[in-house]
Amino acid sequence: MQARAHQNRPRTREEYARGLPDYHDPTGGFGGAAPAYSALTLRIVLATLAVILCVGGAILFAYYGEWWGTVLLGVVGLGSLVDLGWVVHRKRRGEPG
């Protein structure tokens, strides 16, 4: 009962700056689960890996003259690079994760 009363009070600016637990998790708190925070560090690692693999694959496709693969992996790599930039921006802004 106390947890429900805690959820209904207005949040402060500092709470929003730190990040809200279970903000994107509709099932958060069921069954005694711990509050979930954003996994920004994991997203940084995965986006970096995607950029590296896409650049390497695009270079291999270009070497063998397969331009469709070069273009496809270039577009996917560019999308991953944009995602990486946005996630780094969120992390530098101070969001937990």
Can you lay out the helices and strands and say which pair or pack?
Blueprint: H1 2-8, H2 13-18, H3 40-63, H4 67-93
Structure characterization notes:
The chain has 97 residues and is mainly α. Helices cover 66% and strands 0% of the residues. It is built from 4 helices and no strands.
Summarize the model shown.
By secondary structure, the chain is an all-alpha fold. It contains 4 helices and no strands.
Bin the strand percentage. Answer: under 5%
Chain-averaged pLDDT: 81
Protein structure class: mainly alpha
Rg to the nearest angstrom? 20 Å
Spatial shape = elongated
Would you identify the regions where 5 or more consecutive residues have pLDDT less than 50? none
Helix content: 55-70%
SSE order, as H and E?
Answer: HHHH
> How many strand units?
0
- Mind summarizing the main beta sheet? none
Count of DSSP-assigned helices: 4
Report the span from N to C terminus.
29 Å
Comma- or semicolon-separated keywords:
97 residues, mainly alpha, 4 helices, 66% helix
